[in-house]
User: What shape does this take?
Amino acid sequence: NAGVMQNPRHLVRRRGQEARLRCSPMKGHSHVYWYRQLPEEGLKFMVYLQKENIIDESGMPKERFSAEFPKEGPSILRIQQVVRGDSAAYFCASSPPGQIFEGYTFGSGTRLTVV
Amino acid sequence: TQLLEQSPQFLSIQEGENLTVYCNSSSVFSSLQWYRQEPGEGPVLLVTVVTGGEVKKLKRLTFQFGDARKDSSLHITAAQPGDTGLYLCAGRQPNDYKLSFGAGTTVTVRA
Assistant: This one.
């Protein structure tokens, strides 16, 4: 069984460009979570989605960041007009329905570098 | 400020020694999890503890959840170089689904 798949693994963007990060959850998982990891700060919650629904986006910056999880296809985290402070590792995790309070399965992450 | 405080931040020991990592908070958690993360990879779940006072063992790793469900510890016996990595604790508060992570403990086991 494939795990949580994230791509790209590494992404370099110039300031002002857009970054699109993709996450395909494990088969049978319908809950997706995005976390951001900065050095020595641990992982910070960004957004929780189910198919076609944003359940909680309280951790997302109010501007430039958006997320979606369409009926078909991967979940997308989109960052518009990137700035240097957006440089971080972005991790996606998924869990099956009915078990959202158990441990997550994380992807390998996308490391975004803004130059 | 972190909801979960991990200590120490860094730990370097010789192969065969024991080590303990602590995860503390002033908040109560419904469950607490420990993950290990290697460079360039995502966190991998090691264990979930849900009951106050619970102790779980995973080979040479022993996990304990505090009686008040506010703290946890991870103890590794006879550490091996393969135990090297970043250890993260993460807690879920009652009536929430988000995990709050500690900043992590970087463990290095020297051969």
The radius of gyration of chain B is 13 Å. Chain B has no helices and eleven strands. The CA atoms of residues 32 and 91 of chain B lie 4 Å apart. Chain B has a mean pLDDT of 94.
